[in-house]
Amino acid sequence: MSLESKTLTIKDFTFGDGTPRICIPLIGRTGEEIFAMAKIIRMEIDRLDALYSDRPDLRIAVIEWRADYYTNIAETTNVFNILRHLRALFSDRLVLFTFRSEEQGGEIRNDRVHMGMEDIMRNVVSSRMVDMVDVEAVVGNYNIARATTRLHEGGVKVVLSYHDFENTPHDAEIEEKLRQMDILGGDILKMAMMPKNQFDTRRIMEMNQRMVIERTKPVALIAMGAHGIPSRTHGKESGAALTFATVAGASSAPGQIEAKDLIAIMAKQ
After folding, report:
1. Rg of the chain over CA atoms, in angstroms?
2. Is 148 helix (H, G, I), strand (E, B) or coil?
3. What is the per-residue pLDDT for 1?
4. Which residue among 41, 162, 173, 233 is least crowded, i.e. fewest CB within 10 A of its CB?
5. Is 172 helix (H, G, I), strand (E, B) or coil?
6. Is 223 helix (H, G, I), strand (E, B) or coil?
């Protein structure tokens, strides 16, 4: 199978071509906090673009709005207003919409995620202002398949994600989870796991290498926490399609480092 058939290109960015695309989470409780943080991220993007003007592969590619932090997520008008703002401010980047449950490390109670998911997804798709949506691989196969189908019909790509904040599953378990996520319609298959030591991290990175060969879609296997930092900084080695970094310390998962530090490390590889 050719490399090209295993990649996903959205606008100017290709996932799964051996270069990890950098994603920055955007977190805020209110519209004012979100707009202020978005402005800080935009300034840092412009500064880093200028600093590494000869390295387009190091550009921050994705802005992930963590909508589960936003207190007025049920208010469609407010959500549209924020999405409009983000789309205008990050017109040259990709916007990823994420609505994370408590079970998966987010802010929304699990029952609310399952109850409100459909309406929120419908509104986000109809806005035509996002490029990608995160769908959690824990909401049941029927719900996942419905969500991915609706998103694809709306021209939106799916990051199908799974988080384990306690352990690193066995290789066979990771492989089976990725197989299911592939079947259920994920365009990028993302799993973040908690290593107990450096050996778990090495195993996760080696598994990503294998999955690049065996799977037909971009895969991002991430080791969280302090032990897992090499999986974030050395995605070229593992073939991970995505890596997450912070701006101004606004992290969305354990082990994320500042974008400027991540890019400085990647620039030397």
Report:
1. 17
2. helix
3. 41
4. 173
5. helix
6. strand
